Structure formats: C-alpha cells, structure tokens
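_Backbone structure tokens_
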Amino acid sequence: MAAQLVDAHGRVHNYLRIAVTDRCNLRCVYCMPEEGLSFEPDSRILSYEEITEIVQAAAGLGIKKLRITGGEPLVRKGLDRLISMLSAIPGIEDIALTTNGIYLAPFADRLKAAGLTRVNISLDSLRADRFAMITRGGDVSKVLAGLRASQRAGFHPIKLNMVLMKGINDDEVDDFLRMTLKESIQVRFIEYMPIGHADSSWRAAYLPLDYVLERCSRMGLDYRPCGEVYGNGPAQSYQFDGAAGTFGLIHPVSDHFCSSCNRLRLTADGSIKPCLYWSDEYNVRKHIGNPSAIAAIFLKALGAKPETHEMAKALAGQQQTQSPTIRRMSQIGG
C-alpha cells in the first residue's frame, strides 16, 4: 500500500504515539508541576475500543508503528488487553511502550505475550535520593526491577531515557555510559524540552548534548557512530569499542530533527496533535463510528503540520511564529 500520510514538506508519516491516560504516579520536575495537574475525568478518556477504531483508520492510511504513552500508561488497568487489540490490526508492525518503570516488573511477561514489541524506560538518575528528588517520590529500585523483568521477558531493544539537566543529574553521565559497556541496552540522553513551560528554570537547567561526547573523551573511551539502531527514531547512536550496548543523543533543541519527523500524536482525550510543541489539535473522538471521517481528521492534522518547531527560539527568549502548547508533557505523551 502506498503511503498516504505525506505532509506538505514531503515527510512520510507511519508512526502514531498514543497517550492512554494523562495520569501519572510520579511528578517529575520536567514533566509536571509539583502540585500536580487537574486530570481529565474517566468519561473524557478514550476507551480501548475507541483507540482501536482510531488506529484501524490510521493503519489504512499507512501507520505501521505505535508507541503507547501517558501520563504513565501502566496506571491504566488492563493495558495488555489494548496491546492485544492493537497487535491484531492489519498493517501494524511494531508496538512500543514508554513507561517510568515503577509498575513494569509484574506486567512485563503479560505485555510481551500480548504483542508488545519494545520498551522504553525513563530513568533520570541511578541514585536513590536523587531519583526521589527528580520524580518527587519515586523508588529507583522498582524501576531497576522493571528493567530486569523486561530483559527476562525477552524485550529487545530496551532503552533507558535520561533527560539531561544541568546541575541536577549531569554528573551521572559517566555512570550511564558505563552501563552500555556490559549490558545490551540503549541509553538515550535527551535534551530538556520546554513543553508547556519555557520559564527561567528550564533555561537554567538546559544542557546541550555535546556535553555527553565531552564526557566520553574525558573517560578515555573510544566510541564510534553505529549507524541506525532499530527503533531508535531521532537518536544519533554511538557505541564504545567492544561494548554490549549503545548510547544515543536526542537533541530537539540544539539540533532539531524536524526534517525527518514521521510521527503524529493521539492525546488521551481524543485529539490528534501534528507537532509536540505547537498548540494545534484536531478532535477525532467525535468521529468515532465513522472511519472515513476519522481518516479525514488525520489528513487535516497532517495538512497543518509546520515544517519545524522553534524550541531554540524559546531557549533564546525570542519571538515565535506560532503558539506553543500549554499542555505539559504528561498531558501529551511526549
């Protein structure tokens, strides 16, 4: 089937990120304010059947890859049922999960059996006290248990996502890099993004990812680009000589990857977002029961997708050409 989701800038879209909830059991400093957010009532959250119907229409337009996100997707009961429903849709080839890992260990085998392909685990510190500070109460031992359970279940690749923050966790880069020497995992360093806020605290904590490569040199370890790593999306991937794993750099601010963007987003309350950063959204839930209308909303959203975001302008405090989203990261799904 020829790709049908091609935007005005020639980018083919075959990837849909699906937020199944806006709720989360953590309050990470870059994702949610300390006091939390006003969560949507259950009645406004897409049911698994509604999500499946939307994905069926999207698959007919060329969507092949899915990523289940939140909030924290594992606070939603019966997630393996949704995975099973989605994996049965013709044309869907890959289903991944992004999770904070707290609840992952008891469900890893069940999710694998349901058809989940890959797992991304958010892990911004390996130190118990610091992890609790960044997440405002999380237990890093539970995340590490989720990592081990995912390895035993046979997920591959397994990615660890670390949001790099100056003065907060930048002194742990070496520890994360060393993990890749012996473990077959992908550590991905991600620049702090101003999603839902571009205030002075974000600018103060922002650190470009050149810092990671500087640390490699200081460690005296030889590394090389390792080409495309399966499922690594926008990350530039590297590997130390003789290492079991890899590390990647995702720098949406300092060196954005908009020219190769292939994704759309479905929010938990039923809107299509063409771009993570901008405020544009298109309600698709009201068209449930009408597959052609659902497809039309995807095409409408794609038609409005801009060529690029302007996060670098936010960093510099410059005027932007559009309105950034006021939703926080937890409300979009990243």
User: Anything to note?
Assistant: The chain has one domain: 15-332. Residues 140-153 form the longest helix (14 residues).
